[in-house]
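Instructor's aside before we start: the two examples that follow are unrelated to each other. I chose them only because their records fit on one page, so don't look for a connection. First example below.
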Amino acid sequence: MAIVVGYVPTKEGQAALSRAAQEAKLRDTSLVVVNSARGGRDMSEAEDRLALEALVADLVAQGIEVDLRSPVRGLEPAEDLIAIAEQIDAEFIVIGLRRRTPVGKLILGSNAQRILLDSPCPVLAVKAD
């Protein structure tokens, strides 16, 4: 089994990746890092991609087995995380949360809420400092 973590280059994404790495070490399991952008667009900035690869290299140096996935299927990030968690029979999913107003949630929807409600496994939600 593995831990699935949703990662985007934000404070919330970094918090999720950091906690997922801690859990992977604790449980002696692998980590599947999923970088999914809305509408299936991959990370647009080359420096963001290089930064992500550097983060993955750091995790590998810590002894964590990492599988980096950047799906480009046109799905919402929540759908990508849920599909990958089902595909690999994940132990759990780690996501980062950000504070949003009730109106923001209503207008923009909530990937976090969708993951929490539709996930085939437990979800660990973390907030950035």
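Example two begins here.
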Amino acid sequence: MEKYCLNGEEAVLMAIDIQERLVPSMKYGEKVIQNTNILISIMKKIGAPIIATEQYPKGLGKTVSDVSSNLDGSSTFEKSTFSGCTSEVTSALQVLGRKKIIITGMETHVCVFQTVRDLLSQGYQVFVASDAVCSRTKENYRNGLSLMSDMGAVISNTETLLFDILKQSGTPLFKELSKLIK
């Protein structure tokens, strides 16, 4: 059951390619932004690191301002590969020494899928926030989630991840962070 257990001391949030020219073509792009920001808030509050990637920003634009404005103190990496596991990202993860990666981003069946596949092959436990990833079509979204699940990623959602990180109610942190999902 360790595979399904998430705690803040071991976690990193990775936001993949939530970019200016991608979001408008995503039916659920705004929901991905909203839930990514909830997860960013949680991670910042518990002091967990955040990594963002940008796929070919000259063509697809930078990370949308609604997300990038919350990424202060985080690392953003440009990439031309579909996978976010570039040598720079892999090095940054090794330095952090945390083995559980929470994933948000675009597109579920391409960059998210390939990043998750590479993270799993490197020995990380991966938690995909299914309500914080999207594709242009429902079929591609479902296919991406299915592939990642079959490979061993934990397919979860923002609220489940929040409560798993918090572990208990009644604390000041619970009272503060639980408001994010109401």
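The helical segments are 29-46, 57-60, 65-68, 87-96, 108-121, 138-151, 158-166, 172-177.
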